[in-house]
Amino acid sequence: MNEYLNARPLRLALLGNAVFSFASAIVMFTTPGQVSTWLGVEIAGVLPWLAVGLALFAFDLVHQATRSRPASWRALYASAADLLWVVGTFPFVLVPGLLSSTGQWLVGAVAVVVLSLAVLQMRGIRHLHAVAGVNRYRHCLQVSVNSPAEAMWRVISNLGHIQNYVPMLKHSELMNGREPGKGAVRVCSDRSGKRWAEECIEFETGRSVTLRFLASEPDFPFPATQMTGGWDVEPSKDSPVQSQVTVWWELEPKKPWLAPLLLPMLGFGADRTFPAVVERMAFDARGGAPSPASQANGIVARLLPVLC
Predict the structure, then answer these.
(1) Are 90 and 183 within one domain?
(2) Residues 26-73: pLDDT tens digits?
(3) Could you tell me if 81 and 163 lie in one domain?
(4) What is the pLDDT of residues 242-265, one digit of tens each?
(5) Which of 229, 238, 245, 230 is nearest to 285 (CA)?
(6) How far is the C-alpha of 46 from the C-alpha of 33, rounded, in Å?
(7) Helix extents (H) in the chain
(8) 225 in the same domain as 265
(9) Where do the TM regions start and end (predicted)?
(10) Are 112 and 154 contained in the same domain?
């Protein structure tokens, strides 16, 4: 695994949360009367249902933690759920008379554990996206597509036409009539009116292109002081008529503490959008006609469950 995509801290945090949630569910489900006594409130009929919800939450956490490619946006919503739980316990801990003194201590202790797990998950998200040795964060995805690498490169390298494949873009062009290559500057605008420019800083014919977003421009719309992105294409090991397309972004947030929020949101949008973008590129690369392989299995492009 690449060092900047170390998923182990996030996996451990998610599994720890799953263990605690499932253990709590077992206690609530098997001894609702005792838990009600501790709390000083008669809610024995509610606790089994709460236990079922916690158990489902725990199973989802295990699923997240054991995926070959963890989705940080899912870890983010798990952390948000934990924080909502903590906030929801405030009245029971702080308002006298709602619970017994034992119940207040018990609910408070659980809230401390849940808050700690949420913090560990957020740190795990940061670590998952962190680029080693620099204050930058990365999101990357790989897409397998039923189109040869050579054909895909012809489309990907046509930098000024990216608007044809990304629905959010309203316009894209290379400035000053430049041909695609190192030094060319691409200007893009989206349908919400945002506008930005990207300079091609690396161009390896047939293989990859790297673009540096001109983040110092006064109207740069993204919350980053530095930002780069790129496309790599290589033949598939499985078939000569297939290829793997890698799309990636690296950025330095204007506010570093926002990284565990920004990168999952970037990942959520990219993972949902770019397989279809690559599929449109493949359709164009094949001259607008689906390949026999895509007709046979119904798949033109699919997101690969790998870290990159």
Answers:
(1) no
(2) 999 999 999 999 999 999 999 999 999 999 999 999 999 999 999 999
(3) no
(4) 999 999 999 999 998 999 999 999
(5) 245
(6) 11
(7) 8-30, 32-39, 47-66, 72-94, 101-129, 149-156, 259-285, 292-297
(8) yes
(9) 12-31, 43-63, 75-96, 102-120
(10) no
Token look-up 């590129």 returns 281
Angle at 75 (CA atoms; ends 73, 81), nearest 5 degrees: 105
Q: 180: domain CATH number?
A: 3.30.530.20
Measured in whole angstroms, the distance separating CA 129 from the mean position of its chain's CA atoms is 9
Provide the H-helix boundaries in 131-227: 149-156
Q: Which residues pair with 187 in a beta bridge?
A: 173, 197
Res. 133 pLDDT band, cuts 50 70 90: confident
Give whole-number Cα distances, 262 to 62, 159, 251, 258, in Å.
24, 26, 10, 6
| Whether 158 contacts 283, CB under 8 Å | no
CA distance 181 to 201: 8
Full domain range(s) for residue 275: 137-303
Residues 113 and 27 in one domain: yes
Residues 151 and 176 in one domain: yes
> CA 101 from chain center: how many Å?
42
Q: How far apart are CA 113 and CA 97, in angstroms?
A: 23
CA 41/CA 35 separation, integer angstroms: 9
The domain boundary, picked from 74, 97, 129, lies at 129
Alpha-carbon distance values, 91 to 86, 95, 109 (Å): 10, 5, 14
268 to each of 83, 140, 195, 196, 256, how far by Cα in Å? 20, 11, 22, 21, 19
Q: Which of 103, 129, 155 is the last residue of a domain?
A: 129
Verify that 121 and 144 share a domain, yes or no: no
98 occurs within a structural domain: yes
Are 135 and 250 a contacting pair, CB within 8 Å? no
How far is C-alpha 300 from the geometric centre of its chain's CA atoms?
A: 22
Give residue 24's identity as a one-letter amino acid code.
S
pTM for this predicted structure: 0.89
